[in-house]
């Protein structure tokens, strides 16, 4: 493979293509060694200078889909979470959507007063006697982890907030649940500290059960960024309308019409959304 080939990242910058990064991304979602070797070899034949990371992902996904549909869906989910970026606000809304699925009322991007200072909280969720506050930590690269520094910082904020009462849902409430949710992984130290300090952690592969991937697949909460027939701008337009997941788009197709996608084009998008949700079951 020509090592001098450069590719274009989603932010427009260019870098040398690294075969090992593609291999690692495929291994992480459970592709067999034979499948990884086959896909990397085929992508190598198709590479050209200036090819975008999205094009490479699309071709890898198509090849993976031929070999193993369940693994392909998992691959698309992980990539789709990154495509909610580049900033973290859509991920906050996505996390809020998870809490609503759990029966909570939610608010995002709130300023809440602690005992000493105000804090910006990504997601606030409440139901019954429970008041949960959530730090939604978004990373825009696979290799980045939420580490001990993040956990320590969040713990300090939660400690300050724990001393106050908050009015949500017309009831004075104390903070009962503290969450740190990330679209990537946690470092081992962050996990140990979070468990010790009673902070609920959810990441791509943590905990072993009911991690972020499990929550998405088991509840059909696939991000709309998994839909390849939507343009980047259209995905952004839907997110701005608070349509974050495929199932919501399926149930509320009028949002497609509102942004100018109708007729055969709309049906193509909806069919792909249905296929993503159904094939993951």
Description:
The protein has 281 residues and is α/β, with parallel strands linked by helices. It contains 12 helices and 11 strands. It folds into 3 domains: 6-67, no CATH class; 89-218, Trna Endonuclease, Chain: A, domain 1; 222-279, DNA polymerase, domain 1, CATH 1.10.150. It has helices at 19-28, 33-46, 53-67, 69-82, 89-101, 148-161, 188-196, 212-219, 232-240, 246-251, 254-258, 263-279; strands at residues 6-8, 14-16, 105-113, 118-127, 130-137, 145-146, 165-168, 171-174, 177-182, 185-186, 200-202. Helix 1 packs antiparallel against helix 2 (33-46), helix 3 (53-67) packs antiparallel against helix 4 and helix 6 (148-161) packs parallel to helix 7 (188-196). The two termini are 37 Å apart.
Profile the largest sheet: 5 strands, mixed
CATH level 1 name of the largest domain:
Alpha Beta
Beta-strand portion reads 15-25%
- CATH fold type of the largest domain: Trna Endonuclease, Chain: A, domain 1
Number of domains: 3
* Tally of DSSP helical segments: 12
Q: What CATH architecture of the largest domain would you give?
A: 3-Layer(aba) Sandwich
Structural class, by secondary structure, is alpha/beta
Query: How big is the Rg?
Result: 20 Å
């Amino acid at each position: 493979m020509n090592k001098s080939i450069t590719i274009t990242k989603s932010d427009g910058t260019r870098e040398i293509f690294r075969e090992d990064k593609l291999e690692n991304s495929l291994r992480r979602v459970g592709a067999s060694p034979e499948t990884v070797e086959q896909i990397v070899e085929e992508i190598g034949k198709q590479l050209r200078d200036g090819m975008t990371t999205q094009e490479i992902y699309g071709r890898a996904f198509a090849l993976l889909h031929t070999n193993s549909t369940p693994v392909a869906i998992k691959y698309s989910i992980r990539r789709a979470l990154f495509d909610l970026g580049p900033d973290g606000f859509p991920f906050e809304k996505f996390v809020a959507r998870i809490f609503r699925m759990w029966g909570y009322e939610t608010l995002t991007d709130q300023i809440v007063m602690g005992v000493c200072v105000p804090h910006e909280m990504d997601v606030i969720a409440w139901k019954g006697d429970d008041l949960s506050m959530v730090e939604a930590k978004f990373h825009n690269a696979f290799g980045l982890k939420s580490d001990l520094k993040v956990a320590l910082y969040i713990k300090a904020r939660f400690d300050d907030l724990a001393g106050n009462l908050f009015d949500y849902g017309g009831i004075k409430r104390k903070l009962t649940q503290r969450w740190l949710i990330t679209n990537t992984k946690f470092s081992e130290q962050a996990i140990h500290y979070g468990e010790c300090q009673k902070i609920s952690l959810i990441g791509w592969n943590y905990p072993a059960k009911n991690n972020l991937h499990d929550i998405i697949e088991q509840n059909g909460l696939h991000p709309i960024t998994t839909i390849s027939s939507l343009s980047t701008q259209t995905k952004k337009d839907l997110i701005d309308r608070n349509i974050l997941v495929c199932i919501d788009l399926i149930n509320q197709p009028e949002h497609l019409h509102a942004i100018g996608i109708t007729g055969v084009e709309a049906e193509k998008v909806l069919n792909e959304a249905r296929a993503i949700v159904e094939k993951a079951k």
